[in-house]
Write a structure and sequence with these properties.
- The protein is of the alpha/beta class.
- It has 22 helices and 13 strands.
- About 50% of the residues lie in helices and about 10% in strands.
- A six-stranded mixed beta sheet has the order 1-2-13-12-10-11, sandwiched between helices. Strands 6-5-7-8-9 form a five-stranded parallel beta sheet, with helices on both faces. Strands 3-4 form a two-stranded antiparallel sheet.
- Helix 13 runs parallel beside helix 20 and helix 15 packs parallel to helix 20.
- The longest helix has 22 residues.
- The chain binds 6-O-phosphono-beta-D-fructofuranose.
- The site of 6-O-phosphono-beta-D-fructofuranose (F6P) has 14 residues, from loops.
C-alpha cells in the first residue's frame, strides 16, 4: 500500500464510500437541509453550485480531513512563498505572482520577482498601444491588420481560448489567427488569408526549441521574405515571447522585440505572462489587467481561506471522491457558451498534463488513479452528440456546466433558451426518470400496454449523475480570470493529495525524441531495422509509398 491509501483518513473514506455509494443525491436535498444555499459559493463574478453531487455533509468533512492530512495548507503556502515545488525541474511555480495585485513581494530563489513582472507588463502594454493605435507600422508603412500567433500547447491554447472567449471585448481593427499544428494545412490555410504587409507574427515558445512552432515560424518567415523581398522586414513583422533569448536572436528576431517570461511559469499556466500578448493585443492592456485581477480574487481566496471553506479545495476533493472511490474514468466540462468553445481543450492540457503522472514525488509507483480523462464541448451542441451516454450510459462522468447570466449579443430569446437547456440538463442528470413515471406518461398518451412493455425500459433515466454548475455574471476578462484560476488551484490541490508533481511534463519527451529519429530515417533510402516490427513497417510503408508517388509524378 502507498502512503496515500495507507492513511487512516483514506481508509475511513473507503468505509464511508461503502456506506453511502448508492445514496440518491436527492436525499441530501430533503427539507430543512438547505443544501443549495450551503453547497454554493459566490466568488467574484462566479457563482458555483456544487450541491448536485454524491457527497454528503459527512463525506465532505472526511474529504477535508484527507486534504488536511496530506499537508495541503503547507504545500499551498510553499507555492505562494516561491519554494521550488517543481523539484524535478528545480523551479518555483509562480503563475500566482503574474497576477499579484498587492504590494506583497513574491520571491523565487531569494529574488522578488514583482519588479520584473511589472517591467514586462509595461513593455507589453506599450507595444500593444502602438499596434492597436496603428503607430506600429509594417515594413512598407502600413498598419497591422492581422496578428498570427504561432505556438503550441500552453503557448497556444491559453491565448486562443481567451481571445475567443472575450470576443465582445476584442478590437475590430485586428484579426487574430492561431497556428499550432505542424500539419502544413494549419499554416497554409492561414497564410492564404493574409496580406504580408499588414501581418504581425508572434512566435510564442517558452523553450524556443519546439519542433512544431519553429517549423511554422520558419515557413512563415520564408513566406514573408518571399513576399516583401527584404530581410529587414522581419523586424517589423515578427516578435517573440520566450525565456530563451539566445534562440530568439538566432532565429532573427530582435531582442528588443522579444517579451520575456521565466522558468517559474509553466507552459500551461502561462497565459498570464507575456504569452498573453495576443490577448492583450485583442482586448487592450487595461482589460488584460482585469483578467489578472479576476485571477487574483481567486488566488487570495485560496491563499487565505481555511481549507474547509476553500472553493478550489472542495471542487478538487469532490473530483477525487469520484476518481478514487467511484473509479470514474473521465470528467467533462460543458460551457453553454459558443465563445468558451476552446475552454475544454485548454482544461484538457491543464488537467491531463499536470496530474497524469504515475509516480509519487518520491518516485514510487502510485497504486491509485491520478487524474482523469478531461473532455468536453459546448452545450447545447453536446446535447445532440454525446449526452445520450451521460444520461443512460454505464459510466459515471461528473460534469461541469458553465453558463453566463448575461449575453452580449442582444438576442434574449436565444440566451433564455441556452440557460434553460443548461439548467435542465443538470436537473435531468440529477433526477432522472423512473420506469413508473415513463409508464404513466405512456399510458396518458394512450399507448397500448404491449408498446409500453417494449419501450419503457429504453425511456428510463437512472439519474443520480453528478454535476457542478458555474454561473458567470458575464464572460468578461475579470470573470474569465477567476474561472481559470479556480481550475488551476483545483488541479494544484489534487496534485498534492495524489502526491504527484503537477508542474513537470516528462511524459511528452519520449515521443518528441523518437519523432526526430523517425524523421531522420524517413530521409534514408534503406529499410528501417532499428525499431519494433510495426514501427519499421510503418516507416518503410511511408517511404516506399512516397518514393512510388514521386516516381509517378517525376519527369518522364
Ligand atoms: O510538449 C509539451 C509542452 O512542453 C507543453 O508543456 C508546452 O505548453 C508546449 O509543449 C509548448 O512548449 P514551448 O512553449 O516551449 O514551445
Amino acid at each position: 500500500m502507498s502512503s496515500l491509501t495507507d492513511m487512516q483518513e483514506w481508509q475511513v473514506l473507503q468505509k464511508q464510500f461503502e456506506l453511502e455509494a448508492d445514496n440518491p443525491i436527492l436525499k441530501y436535498f430533503e427539507s430543512g437541509q438547505n443544501r443549495f444555499a450551503r453547497w454554493s459559493h459566490k466568488l467574484g463574478g462566479l457563482f458555483v453550485d456544487y450541491s448536485k453531487h454524491r457527497v454528503s455533509d459527512k463525506t465532505m468533512q472526511l474529504l477535508m480531513d484527507l486534504a488536511m492530512a496530506r499537508g495541503l495548507e503547507s504545500s499551498r503556502d510553499q507555492m505562494f512563498a516561491g519554494n521550488n515545488i517543481n523539484f524535478t525541474e528545480d523551479r518555483a511555480v509562480l503563475h500566482i505572482a503574474l497576477r499579484n495585485q498587492s504590494a506583497r513581494p513574491i520571491r523565487a530563489n531569494g529574488e522578488d520577482v514583482m519588479p520584473k513582472i511589472k517591467q514586462v507588463l509595461q513593455r507589453l502594454a506599450d507595444f500593444t498601444d502602438k499596434v492597436r493605435s496603428g503607430e506600429w507600422k509594417g515594413y512598407s508603412g502600413k498598419k497591422i491588420t492581422d496578428v498570427v500567433n504561432i505556438g503550441i500547447g500552453g503557448s497556444d491554447l491559453g491565448p486562443r481560448m481567451a481571445v475567443t472567449a472575450l470576443r465582445p471585448f476584442v478590437t475590430d481593427k485586428l484579426k487574430f489567427h492561431f497556428v499550432a499544428n505542424v500539419d502544413g494545412a494549419d499554416l497554409s490555410n492561414t497564410l492564404k488569408q493574409l496580406n504580408p504587409q499588414t501581418t504581425l507574427f508572434i512566435v510564442e515558445s517558452k523553450t524556443f526549441s519546439t519542433q512544431e512552432t519553429l517549423t511554422n515560424a520558419r515557413t512563415a518567415r520564408a513566406w514573408l521574405l518571399d513576399k516583401l523581398k527584404n530581410k529587414d522586414a522581419i523586424l517589423k513583422h515578427f516578435v517573440a515571447v520566450s525565456v530563451n533569448r539566445a534562440a530568439v536572436k538566432e532565429f532573427g528576431i530582435a531582442i528588443e522585440h522579444m517579451f520575456e517570461f521565466w522558468d517559474w511559469v509553466g507552459g500551461r499556466y502561462s497565459l498570464w505572462s507575456a504569452i498573453g500578448l495576443p490577448i492583450m493585443l485583442a482586448i487592450g492592456s487595461a482589460r488584460f489587467q482585469e483578467l489578472l485581477s479576476g485571477a487574483y480574487i481567486v488566488d487570495e481566496h485560496f491563499r487565505t481561506s481555511p481549507i474547509a471553506e476553500s472553493l478550489p479545495v472542495k471542487l478538487a476533493m469532490i473530483d477525487i471522491w469520484y476518481v478514487n472511490f467511484y473509479h470514474a474514468k473521465s470528467r467533462a466540462v460543458f460551457p453553454y457558451s459558443y465563445d468558451l468553445r476552446y475552454l475544454p481543450h485548454y482544461l484538457q492540457q491543464a488537467e491531463m498534463e499536470s496530474n497524469g503522472k504515475q509516480v509519487t514525488r518520491e518516485g514510487r509507483p502510485v497504486d491509485y488513479s491520478t487524474g482523469v480523462v478531461s473532455w468536453g464541448a459546448t452545450g447545447v451542441n453536446s446535447q445532440h452528440a454525446n449526452f445520450q451516454m451521460l444520461h443512460q450510459g454505464t459510466q459515471l462522468v461528473p460534469a461541469d456546466f458553465i453558463v453566463a447570466l448575461q449575453s452580449f449579443d442582444g438576442l434574449p430569446d436565444h440566451h433564455d433558451k441556452l440557460v434553460s437547456n443548461c439548467i435542465a440538463q443538470t436537473e435531468a442528470l440529477l433526477c432522472g426518470k423512473s420506469e413508473q413515471r415513463v409508464r404513466e406518461e405512456m399510458q396518458r398518451q394512450g399507448c397500448p400496454i404491449s408498446e409500453i412493455d417494449k419501450l419503457a425500459p429504453h425511456r428510463v433515466f437512472s439519474g443520480n449523475r453528478p454535476t457542478t454548475t458555474m454561473v458567470l455574471d458575464q464572460i468578461d476578462p475579470e470573470t474569465l480570470g477567476s474561472l481559470i484560476a479556480l481550475y488551476e488551484h483545483k488541479i494544484f490541490v489534487q496534485g498534492i493529495v495524489w502526491d504527484v508533481n503537477s508542474f513537470d511534463q516528462w511524459g511528452v519527451e519520449l515521443g518528441k525524441d523518437l519523432a526526430n529519429t523517425v524523421l531522420s530515417e524517413l530521409a534514408q533510402t534503406s529499410s528501417s531495422t532499428t525499431h519494433d516490427a510495426s514501427t519499421n513497417g510503418l516507416i518503410d510503408y511511408y517511404k516506399n509509398s512516397k518514393a512510388e508517388a514521386q516516381r509517378k509524378c517525376g519527369p518522364d
